[in-house]
């Protein structure tokens, strides 16, 4: 038996040597490919981790969101975070623009935000009057899916091109908020937006709720939108006008992340985002150029987000320093105050919010919150498959299953919240 094995092994070696002598480059490619494939299957493809206390919300997710229990197969040819993130942005950006009807909302300080209500059968024109209700609120009982874009995003942000149609197909009225000055929303006052202020979100929610008193509202916040939404959920607690939430690629510790963004490959992404922010200020230059607190030439010279926030953001929102501002943006340390069902999804390799910065300990102490952590996925990436299905990649499938499960509940404001409260009361004894 031993002799047979030895002879078979010798023949295999001879065949490999002969193949190498005839095709040295091809053999090298095969060996490297085999090693890479082994690495991908062993180290990259992983089942995501779900962090949440045992109880009704965790059971609800595990019973209704099958993707949570499956392995995540990030796109094999671009799974490293610094490749995955920009490619996902570029590819989703190729999707056609969405058709909306627009509703303008005045803020208490004289500013203006806008709500874009998805209308795939419309002409795509914007409503040019405030509180356009003829089509927007035709069915006040129908549940609403509110979407909040990232730092330089609007209702046409590439990730909303996939999220919004999914919510509509399930049966929600999908609406995206445009922050002040964004999405061709005229800037009426010298004030934009930031992650440490949720006043405009409160204004939007009060308006939506007053027009739809009986409708369920599920809010999705992406990146900066998730910071603002989490801030609102934390500060409003049980009184939140949002009935459930989905937070995607939220930066949970802004202070640490800003320092991380100034290192290595992250620096180039930092520069790109800074240029985009400078572009927003330049677009509304007339509103700021005569105000003494701003030096727009200094803003133009900024190379990093820290420099931009020091020259512009903290002066707009009256913070003494960037450290004070970044600290105010941090949801971490306050998660226990969220009192509405909230599902979060983060990738452990997110260059903005890497795994070691995630508030996992806090999540495991709050029965209203669950956090799904994938080993890969980058920042708002989460593509999967060799040829990714951009409209139904990993984060889209999670959203679809989550929204579908919620809409089936007769009243998830009571069904989920009351059962969680019952569980919490039971755990006290």
From TrEMBL:
Origin superkingdom: Eukaryota
Active site: 223 (charge relay system), 350 (charge relay system), 379 (charge relay system)
Classification via InterPro entries: AB_hydrolase_1 (IPR000073), AB_hydrolase_4_sf (IPR050960), AB_hydrolase_fold (IPR029058), ABHD4 (IPR012020)
Example GO BP: medium-chain fatty acid catabolic process
UniProt source species: Blomia tropicalis
Name used for this protein in its record: AB hydrolase-1 domain-containing protein
Record-stated family: Belongs to the AB hydrolase superfamily. AB hydrolase 4 family.
Domain AB hydrolase-1: 147-385
Claim: Transmembrane helix is one of the keywords in the record: yes
């Amino acid at each position: 038996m031993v002799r047979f094995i030895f002879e078979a092994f010798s023949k295999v070696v001879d065949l490999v040597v002969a193949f190498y002598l005839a095709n040295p480059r091809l053999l090298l490619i095969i060996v490297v490919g085999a090693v890479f494939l082994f690495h991908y299957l062993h180290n990259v493809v992983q089942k995501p981790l779900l962090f949440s206390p045992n109880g009704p919300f965790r059971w609800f997710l595990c019973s209704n969101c099958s993707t949570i229990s499956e392995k995540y197969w990030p796109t094999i040819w671009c799974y490293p975070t610094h490749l995955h993130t920009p490619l996902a942005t570029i590819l989703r950006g190729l999707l056609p623009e969405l058709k909306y009807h627009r509703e303008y909302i005045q803020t208490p300080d004289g500013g203006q935000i806008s709500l874009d209500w998805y209308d795939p059968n419309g002409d795509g024109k914007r409503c040019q009057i405030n509180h356009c209700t003829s089509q927007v609120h035709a069915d006040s009982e129908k549940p609403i899916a509110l979407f909040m874009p990232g730092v330089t995003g609007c209702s046409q942000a590439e990730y909303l091109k996939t999220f919004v149609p999914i919510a509509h197909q399930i049966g929600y009225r999908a609406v995206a908020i445009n922050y002040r000055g964004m999405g061709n929303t005229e800037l009426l006052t010298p004030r934009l937006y930031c992650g440490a202020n949720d006043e405009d979100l409160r204004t939007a929610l009060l308006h939506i709720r007053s027009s739809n008193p009986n409708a369920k509202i599920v809010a999705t916040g992406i990146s900066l939108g998730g910071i603002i939404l989490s801030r609102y959920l934390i500060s409003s607690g049980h009184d939140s006008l949002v009935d459930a939430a989905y937070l995607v690629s939220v930066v949970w510790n802004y202070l640490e992340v800003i320092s991380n963004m100034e290192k290595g490959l992250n620096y180039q992404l930092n520069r790109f985002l800074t240029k985009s922010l400078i572009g927003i200020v330049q677009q509304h230059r007339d509103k700021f150029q005569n105000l003494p607190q701003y030096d727009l030439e200094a803003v133009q010279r900024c190379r990093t987000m820290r420099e931009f926030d020091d020259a512009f953001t903290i002066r707009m929102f009256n913070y003494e320093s960037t450290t004070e501002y970044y600290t105010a943006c941090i949801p971490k340390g306050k998660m226990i105050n969220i009192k509405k069902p909230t599902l979060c999804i983060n990738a452990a390799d997110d260059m903005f919010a890497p795994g070691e910065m995630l508030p996992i300990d806090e999540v495991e102490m709050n029965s209203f919150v669950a956090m799904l952590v994938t080993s890969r996925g980058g920042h708002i990436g989460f593509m999967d498959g060799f040829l990714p299905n951009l409209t139904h990649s990993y984060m889209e499938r999670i959203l679809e299953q989550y929204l579908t499960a919620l809409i089936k509940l007769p009243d998830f404001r009571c069904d989920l919240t009351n059962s969680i409260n019952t569980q919490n009361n039971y755990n006290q004894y």
